[in-house]
Amino acid sequence: MVLILSCSGDTTDQGPVNNLKPSNLSIDVEIAGQSSENPNGDGSGEVNLTFQAANATLYKILIEGQLKESTSNTLSYTFTDEGTHDYSIVVSAYNQGQFISKTISVTVYVEELIGLIWSDEFNNRSLDLNKWNYETGTGVNGDWGTGQLDRATDRSENISFQNGIIDADGGCLVITTRDETFMDREYTSGRINTRDKGSWGPGHRIVARVKASGVRHQGQGFAFWMMPQEKPVTVDAIMWPQGGEIDIMEYVGSIPYHNLGTVHYAWEWQNNQYQDWNHGHLGGYYSYETQQTPNPEEPGYGNFPPPENDPNAGSSGFHEYGIDWYDDRIEFFVDDSIYHIHYLKDGGAYTVDGQDEKSVELVDGRRVTISEYSNHFDEWHPFEHKMYAILSAGVGGSDYTYGGPIVPEAQFPCSVYIDWVRVYKME
């Protein structure tokens, strides 16, 4: 069933008028499963847009704060907020800088789901491009923002799949860093993300099963982390660190007996460029030996490489790295052992209002890092919004960030095995 909606506005730019200016913009909306019994859809949240304008060569669609482009006159989008909600969608038709815009309203029902809602078991020996994107290049400032030395590629040398890995539940995604000359770099790596294909916020458990077997020397690292999918409607893009970052797993060869779970955020709203001075972070370490926050809580670099198959090193076997993301806090865990609880707002347990702070407390007899971020500006509270997932390996790091400076004895190729990634809707 196709629903043709009336438009709430028609605005044009103030540029010169000529015969190439788009006109007669029409928009059709189809809500999946819509019927007389289900006027707002079948609960899948899927909406298909069809738009047409004379002289238009490009369409831009603003939907839930995300700006999307289309040259094919169609766009499919899936709403994920559970329940019945009203949404505004702005469609603009462009030609040579001139445009017209129309706004439509649509009401969509999304069924409430509990349990496993998204996963990739990596059993198909190829990357599912309906779920993942390859991310290539060298990132921010040419070093991924951390002083890394690697160039990420989409080659099978860096991203591959393998069956028969001991203790894996099935097939594995394999991300490998290599010591090789490629384009302008002496090291290569792999990274993938779910941007625009899968993003989640409060109310979800997000977990990956990973064996970082090759990460054994300083300068080698692997991360399972999240970056912002959503942004304020008043900006074209949200910059780091204003948009926040969640590091679920940050495992480096220079600290082989510990994992680090961290949130990153901004002190001030300066959303115009990459600004490290504006960067705040609160993290907690996990000891594989004691299954809690270590003592001392900051283990420091050293004790690498660990002996082969040392059970107290993260490289020796598969572990489940995840977060339980609640409305008021994020709980970081490894193998279901919580080691860092981060409160999103002022006034959580163990915290003092209005301050960013961190301490180690005993929770049910275990050492747990407790931290609080006090939301320093009104424009955006990053940990109240959806983020997409990233799996990435890297080489090097400046001033002991990420993996730290690469050491000569580091062994390559360095492979990490990802058994699966799963997302659950919590009750």
Element layout with pairings:
Layout: E1 10-12, E2 23-31, E3 46-54, E4 58-63, E5 66-70, E6 74-78, E7 83-95, E8 98-110, E9 115-120, E10 133-134, E11 150-152, E12 159-162, E13 172-182, E14 185-189, E15 191-193, E16 199-200, E17 204-211, E18 220-228, E19 245-252, E20 258-266, E21 279-287, E22 319-325, E23 329-334, E24 337-343, E25 357-363, E26 366-372, E27 387-395, E28 414-425
Parallel strand pairs: 11-14, 24-26
Antiparallel strand pairs: 1-8, 2-3, 3-6, 4-5, 4-7, 7-8, 9-28, 10-15, 12-13, 13-14, 13-28, 15-27, 16-27, 17-22, 17-28, 18-19, 18-27, 19-20, 20-21, 22-23, 23-24, 25-26
GO molecular function: hydrolase activity, hydrolyzing O-glycosyl compounds
Protein name: Glycoside hydrolase family 16 protein
Family: Belongs to the glycosyl hydrolase 16 family.
Verbal overview:
- There is one protein chain.
- The chain starts with 9 loop residues before the first strand and ends with a strand.
- It has no helices and 28 strands.
- 41% of the residues are buried.
- By secondary structure, the chain is mainly β.
- It has 2 domains: 10-110, Sandwich (Immunoglobulin-like); 115-425, Jelly Rolls (Sandwich).
- Residues 85-427 form the GH16 domain.
Indicate the percent of residues in helices. under 10%
The CATH C-level name of the largest domain is Mainly Beta
Question: Which CATH architecture of the largest domain would you pick?
Answer: Sandwich
Instruction: Say what the CATH topology of the largest domain is.
Output: Jelly Rolls
Q: What would you call the quaternary organization?
A: single chain
Pfam family, one: Glyco_hydro_16
GO molecular function: hydrolase activity, hydrolyzing O-glycosyl compounds
Family: Belongs to the glycosyl hydrolase 16 family.
Organism: Flagellimonas aequoris
